[in-house]
Give the backbone structure.
Amino acid sequence: YFRECSRSQFTEHHGHMVHELEFMDANATHAYLAPGGGRTPNCYIPSERDEKVLEWILADGGAIGYFAFANIQQASIVAVAIAADKTKGIMDTEEASIEASVASISDGAYAVFRRELFLNVDNARWHLAADYLTYGFSDQGQKEVTKTKYVRVNAAIRARMESRVREQGNRKADFVSVPPASCPAGVGLKAEPFRNRWGTDKLNYTCEPCAPGKAKLTTEAAECESCLPGQFANASGALRCDFCEPGRVASQRGSPACTACGENTFAAAPGSSSCNNCSAGDVAAPRGQSKCDRCELGSYREEG
């Protein structure tokens, strides 16, 4: 695990995050990379400029660099063999060690350290992409790939890609809803099940205001939470639930409103989930009382 040298990065005028090494001269670069030169130990320095990465690698005897295959053609870069072993080193592994070359990349043997390139094309816009892709996989297009020192695709991949271009993509490609990264406060994540035209059950994700009886204070992409007993939210998009006033209760979760206690019952504390009966000789009237009063002289009331 290598930390980024984040303290040495800044945003340049195009809005890209770059490292200050990008603009140092040779002497300043060597001074920075030297032990005690100011950088964070064992940190990762990203750059889109391969010539700069090569310069930094050559200035630091303990550095490791990752380059595209085209850069290996330079005399100062030597490719090393790697193996699919996450535990043992190259001297101890029993796995086959493969060095990057035109042959090993073309036949798929060099598969440990590589990434695939996926092209996402809108089915309705295939007519715009087809000519470009057809040329790219043609003999002339593959010659252009070779000119840049990269490796042309092998016959099997080329045949599969040409077939996909002729088919104009995947006509059964289906919309896949991705949950949003966040939903505003008072707005919750909703997963709506539906069945597509091919009979596959799917989910569609949206952010919708919390319904009455629910609330959400954070901006996370999460569902709204139901109010607890004794609490309520009487409007859509509530940030938090309110406590019922004395004399009113909410007996269930997710209540949009509180209910007044009936006659001869009371709720003394805010946030009550149930009403209590007045004792014998006490009365609470009309509805919605927070306490019971003694019966007037000349009258009485039995408990219950």
Observations:
- Helices lie at 26-33, 50-59, 102-106, 126-136, 139-147, 155-166.
- Residues 14 and 295 are 81 Å apart (CA to CA).
